[in-house]
Amino acid sequence: MPSSSPISSVNDFVVRFANVNGSGSASANELFARSVLRMGIPVAPRNIFPSNIQGLPTWYEVRISEAGHLGARGGTDLMVAMNPQTWEKDVAGIEPGGYLLYDSTKPMPKSKFREDISVIGVPLTAICNREYSDARQRQLFKNIMYLGTLCALLDMDVAATEQLVREQFKSKEKLIDANLHALHLGRDWALQNLQCPIRLRLRPAKAVGDRIFIEGNSAAALGAVYGGATMCAWYPITPSSSLADAFTSHCRRLRADSASKKNKFAIVQAEDELASIGMVIGAAWNGARAFTATSGPGVSLMQEFLGLAYFAEIPAVIFDVQRAGPSTGMPTRTQQCDLISCAYASHGDTKHVLLFPEDPAEAFDFAADAFDLADRLQTPIFVMLDLDIGMNHRLCRPLTWDDKRKYDRGKVMTAADLDAGKDFGRYLDVDGDGIPYRTYPGTHPTKGSFFTRGTSRDRYARYTEEGAPYADNMQRLLRKFETAKDLVPRPLQANAAKPTKYGVIYYGSTSPAMDEAIHMIETRGHSLNRLRVRAFPFHSSVTSFVADHDFVFVVEQNRDAQLRSLIVNECSIDPVRLVPILHYDGTPITARFIARAIGDHLDALKVTPLRKVVS
Amino acid sequence: MTYITKPKFHHPGLPKNALGYTHRDYEGSVSTLCAGCGHDSISGAIIEACFELDIEPHRVAKLSGIGCSSKTPTYFLGNSHGFNSVHGRMPSVLTGANLANRDLIYLGVSGDGDSASIGLGQFAHALRRGVNMVYIVENNGVYGLTKGQFSATADRGSKSKRGATNTDNSIDLVALALQLGATFVARSFSGDKEQMVPVIKAAIEHEGAAFIDIISPCVAFNNHMGSTKSFDYVREHNESVNRLDFITGRAPITVAYEPGSVEVVEQHDGSKLVLKKVAADYDPHDRLGAMNFLQRHAAIGQIVTGLLYVDPDPEDLHRNLNTVEPPLNSLAEAELCPGSAMLEKINASLR
Question: What mean pLDDT comes out for the span A18-44?
Fold first, then answer.
């Protein structure tokens, strides 16, 4: 008997699967997450995977939360331990009173277990070996069998799982039958031999609503399709490759010309990131909407070109799916660590526009918006995703599109404009917003051509090394950046029920953990106003939010408090007023972490100071 | 040096082409290169080629990297859009531009530092992708703007102006272009306008990746004794395989050569290349033979010039990517956006 009483919970616990990479576990694990979702219970799955193709440990964590908490929670209530390599660590990671499901084919010494957990052994390998002769089948169906076992242990609606199997193997009747057979093998064994259900249970609910389940990279790629991108150049790098892959498959389905069967898109896997961004810049210069998808090391390689795009004023969209750096860092772990390198990318004085989507739905919106912003501002736009949003399925609101929406192609002078005698100066600020007009190559036989260059030039794009026109141009670029502040997505503020002197600023994938943490902090007796920053440069409301509070916590997933540095630098704010809350071990930030860090800080303030003795 | 205005004065008697344009309509601003620079002769040949082909100047996009050669697009086709990009990266910018609008003519101008050193990777990949372009390297074997350092095309054993000997092996971009699958490969010499103009014309009409290496002596840093890229050295060691005449599908063939020494190559668009063979055994359709010929002559110190290889029916990147006929930059919402009804379907599939 376990010494801690077993955890008892309905629709609110964490299941973690420990597997060997390349063993075919991913689809069984995903099937589990989807089955729970089909029961109307929100889930937040996360892949924790190595930089490896086969053989190294991999985990899949499913947070089940009827209350709808989608951030990582930390801790494991039920461990499905299928990887002997990580056994010790996996068993140690179970919460007191938690459960361990393992393959009991080989007897294990008692010392390998813990007293304070419930141990559930199923002879999976033995059953598989009896049932199947093919080695590959033995492996694959073992995964489906433990899924069947979970169905029994957690009292799941097996019909939902069966339906998902049918959908997954649609048109492959043989595979449907074989998988259903394995599912029931596992379920029946558990029902006959184990006490089912355990105290962790799933009960049908109606908490999912019309939400969809999608990876951020796929949603961003779909946003690029809807936003009118016709050219994508990219170089494979984790965790961004699936964005380019998704764009390719979305385009094949949605962008083939119905009559000619030809493609209304061009996708090039470039030889490196320098070539990717070069192609994007060439295409955008020539009037197509173009993007690349990359991660931190790729952004480092693109630095010179990004300066050119800034200075020559060429629209470009860059999806940076961030991973832990520096250098190769932890290539399969998440961080928000490229803010500074993107915000000020390249040599000389440069500043770039960054967007911070919180989830796949916003990644879709911001992806489409990025192309409008790039054309409007004639400058690179970074969409700052991260591995946590990009490579995990996330429950989010349905994607929406307004059919009346027109692409904003920005200030482009046409042949008719030129014939009408409009003065064309490529770098002439006619509207006072710092944004000049451009022409596409090939517009007019005798008017409107200009030379694009990274060297200094005057307002009519003529080469010059004179100081005054150089400074004039650099000042105009600053005006343009000011204009951007009101064009980018605004920060979203949510105030506490009670007035408070304290605030918190956060962004991107921290969102669900922050939302959950707020309630935890409130139960400790503290109130916080929240501001979710969604873009750089900062809207004036960021400065006023800081001004309105005694101090503001800035929650980030990097070591150096990069957003805080940007706020200090760009809003001229005393750093003392911004308290960094930093999580950067490569795992997604949790509500528990935020609540503890902020709660402890605020608790310390509550201590009544000793009265100063007046002598 | 800032922008120099060129007087727009036209002699009334200047000859006009079919579009009614004179040479002056194909010129750019005044060159800021050294007097006598081979690059200016190449600019002149580009102007001549475009004039003779009756190309509307604004239908050409001219792109370059960084260096003396990369400055030259300012000095020709003033009514064309130009893009002076970053060092060694012209090929990627050109590739992207080409994908955005397949209807323009893409002229990439680069140098030996730009293409053989810093940009060797992009040079290779643009050629192996078969981007429809004319890629000209103005090859002088030296870094001019930074005062005379060797480039990667400088021959082993050649001497710099300061007397240093190059001990590194040289890169022959023509040999690489042949190996990488370029469908039009030529070499010429900036001192030989007769050869250059038809080669450039043929390359423009070629609907695939056309590469031309033009040896262009640097009068400031690489035109001395001991250099293998000087005017005198190249004149003495030039081994021309053929003399070329270029005839578009529109004009009748007026040039006649002695029977047995002439070969007419018909290109995909109906234009014709009339090759006057100098080397009797030379076959410009044999990629392997061209590579062999090149190496054999290089071994005895000869610089082979002329049209070395041409594929009359080349594939290009657009064909391989199966892109639609209208330029991608001309497609609007109606063609690109799948709309809200489709998004509803997609949402439904994600539940």
Answer: 94
Q: What is the pLDDT of residue B145?
A: 86
Residues whose CB is less than 8 angstroms from the CB of residue A335 and which lie 6 or more positions away in sequence, other chains included: A322, A323, A324, A325, A329, A386, A387, A557, A558, A584, A586
B213-242: pLDDT as tens digits: 999 989 888 888 888 888 888 888 888 888
Separation between Cα atoms, residue A409 and residue A377, nearest integer Å: 10
- Cβ <8 Å between A230 and B329: yes
> What order of strands is seen across the sheet that includes strand A380-386?
A266-269, A231-234, A290-294, A316-322, A380-386, A353-355, A535-536
pLDDT for A330 equals 95
The total of other beta-carbon atoms located within 10 Å of residue B189's CB is 24
pLDDT in tens, A486-536: 999 999 999 999 999 999 999 999 999 999 999 999 999 999 999 999 999
pLDDT for res A363: 98
Tens of pLDDT, residue by residue over A235-294, are: 999 999 999 999 999 999 999 999 999 999 999 999 999 999 999 999 999 999 999 999
Instruction: Tell which of A41, A212, A279 to mutate to test the B interface (max B CBs under 10 Å).
Output: A279
Nearest beta carbon to residue B93 from set A255, A278, A400: A278
Can you list the domains of chain A with their CATH numbers?
9-201 (3.40.920.10), 214-396 (3.40.50.970), 411-487 (no CATH), 492-606 (3.40.50.920)
Residue-wise pLDDT tens digits, B83-109: 999 999 999 999 999 999 999 999 999
Cβ separation B100–A231 shorter than 8 A = yes
Residue A555, classed as helix, strand or coil, is: strand
Among A222, A281, A287, select the one facing B93 at the smallest CB separation: A281
- Per-residue tokens: B212: 């031309």
Kindly state whether A397 is in contact with chain B, defined as any CB-CB distance less than 8 angstroms. Answer: no
Residue A1, pLDDT score: 47
For chain B, say whether A446 makes contact (Cβ under 8 Å). Answer: yes
Backbone torsions φ then ψ of B226, nearest 5 degrees: 95, -15
How near does any CA of chain A get to the CA of B258, in Å?
42
Residue A306 contacts by C-beta under 8 Å, 6 or more apart in sequence?
A277, A299, A316, A318, A345, A346, A350, A352, A380
Q: What's residue A499's pLDDT? A: 95
- Per-domain residue ranges of chain B: 23-325
For domain B23-325, give the CATH number.
3.40.50.970
Q: What is the pLDDT of residues B194-214, one digit of tens each?
A: 889 999 999 999 999 999 999
Number of A/B CB contacts below 8 angstroms equals 234
Whether B84 and A266 lie within 8 Å, measured CB to CB = no
Chain A hits for B100, CB-CB cut-off 8 Å, are 230-231, 282-288, 290
Nearest to A280 among B73, B96, B344 (CB): B96
| Digit-coded pLDDT (tens) for B137-162 | 999 999 988 888 999 999 999 888 88
Contact indicator for A428, A378 with CB cutoff of 8 Å: no
Dihedral angle over CA of A194, A199, A204, A210, nearest 10: -120
Tell me how crowded residue B167 is: count the other CB atoms within 10 A of its CB: 8
What are the angstrom distances between the C-alpha of A56 and each of A46, A324, B143?
17, 19, 50
Give me the pLDDT at residue B243, please.
77
Q: d(Cα A156, Cα A196) in Å, to the nearest integer? A: 11
Average pLDDT over residues B303-331: 95
State whether B329 and A440 contact (CB < 8 Å): yes
Residues of chain A with pLDDT > 90: what percent? 92
Asked if residue A575 has a cis previous peptide bond (ω within 30° of 0), the answer is no
Nearby residues of A522 by Cβ (< 8 Å), 6 or more positions away: A496
pLDDT tens-digit map of A531-542: 999 999 999 999
Q: Which among A212, A260, A274 has the least Cβ separation from residue B92?
A: A274
